[in-house]
Amino acid sequence: MRFQPATAEEPEINLTALIDVVFLLLIFFMVSTTFDRQQALPITLPDASQGAPSVESATFEIVLGPDGMLSTSGWSGPVDDSQWLNVVREWQTNSPQGTVIVYADTQARHGEVVGVLDQLANAEVQSVQVATRYNQD
Description:
This protein is of the alpha/beta class and 137 residues long. It has helices at residues 15-32, 83-94, 110-122; strands at 47-48, 59-64, 69-71, 76-78, 99-104, 128-130, 133-134. The chain contains three helices and seven strands; from the N terminus they run αββββαβαββ. Strands 4-3-2-5-6 form a five-stranded mixed sheet, with helices on one face. A two-stranded parallel sheet has the order 1-7. The longest helix has 18 residues, at 15-32.
């Protein structure tokens, strides 16, 4: 009795199902991800019980942290350094109808916030907003 030798079959992996699963996971994560605005300085905005949300237009954001550090899209440093104002002026020449939004931490000193607003007024910025969180209480 003679047995025939078993033919060795080459194992193969079917990648079609794997690719389908990877694409489904990719679509799931793209749909379920929320995009939050990340800021350079961690700040806590003060609460406000009244007010209206700002209308979307060209905006320039200034973040004032609790330690007196300013951060803009093109500069970061202490409040008393007037170099950040040059960045604001450059932005203002490109979008004169835009709005400057100041995000000041609740722990930031009042004098620093007023100093920033005063320097923006001296730079003849036409539209300045101070950001707050809406508190319904």
